[in-house]
Amino acid sequence: MTITETEGSAGVQRILSGAKPTADSLHLGNYIGAVRNWAEMQSRYDAVIFIPDLHAVTVDFDPTTLAHRTRTVAAQYIAAGIDPEKCTFFVQSHVPEHAELAWALNCITGFGEASRMTQFKDKSAKQGSDSTTLGLFAYPTLMAADILLYQADLVPVGEDQRQHLELTRNLAQRFNTRFGETFTVPEPAILRETAKIYDLQNPTAKMSKTGESPNGAIQLLDDPKITAKRIKSAVTDDGTEIRFDAENKPGVSNLLTIYSVISGKTVAELEAEYAGRMYGHLKVDLANLLVDFVTPLRERTNELLADPAELDRLLARGADKARSIAGTTLDTVYDRMGFLPRRQA
Ligand code: TYM
Q: For ligand 1, which residues put their CB under 6 angstroms from it?
């Protein structure tokens, strides 16, 4: 599996990505579709990896758990291989330029264009218009600001973010055309095979933090016994053959994708290995494999969470680094847009 890489300009290209702290743990879809790729790319790219906590407050949230969830995501990134020494690693709300650039982008985004974002349409339809905030509506322009502030070349994400990336590209091009060349136009880096991990109970819907059934997701911080149970009770398909066929066998195909990523074997190797065997065999083996995978990840995350001051120190250092990049971009944006420069008092 290779990630679509754009032709490099001079120097190392920059990647940027993040996962929202909207649950008590990241799930296996976040890991397979995103975090694992960042860890793999960080040594070849200049990586900016952050925790989009401003995005977390666009839906209902609890102020008493937000900080803990933010630290938990930070710890999970590190446990999954993100090295704060190699990348720019920080929390979005510590860098006010994100909200400032988002405002400027709001003012060049059409109402109709923002209304067409499918994630907004889905979430607002579920919540009803009275509980849908302006923040949720403007979520994609905040995401565009996250990316454009750092002049990212590549944005490694899962398939569900493709439309937001498309909007980001449009806004970058629009700004550049209207105000002069300012932003790098970023490319999505989406691994086709693992771009969408599906819900274990409803294998045609994506695995998500807010899935209909809690048994449909593998939370990386769950007790490994729960992990094993969820795999063993995953919905499979008619027939008995263990074969990858996303259309007719979505349940088994999803398990094969997960198995392939975690074991490092190809799907074809797994199909050969399980020829003539039952779904139950595949599930038991995958459950054991995943327990061995999540156990050290969970232990490392809990170890890191036991020292919140050290996590906060790493994040504060990352925010200083991020601000030096973001501040430069925002100065250029304000200058190009014609704002009165602020003089020293
Ligand atoms: P979030 O927090 O929903 O998800 C984090 C990452 O995990 C990927 N992902 C999946 N990949 C495969 N299968 C799944 N079932 C699955 N579920 C989630 C997502 O595609 C994502 O890459 N808007 C973003 C956060 C964000 C961001 C950014 C990302 C804010 N600003 C700037 C990149 C760049 C989001 O909600 O991700």
A: 16-20, 29-30, 32-34, 52, 55, 143, 146-147, 155, 157-158, 160-161, 195-197, 206-208
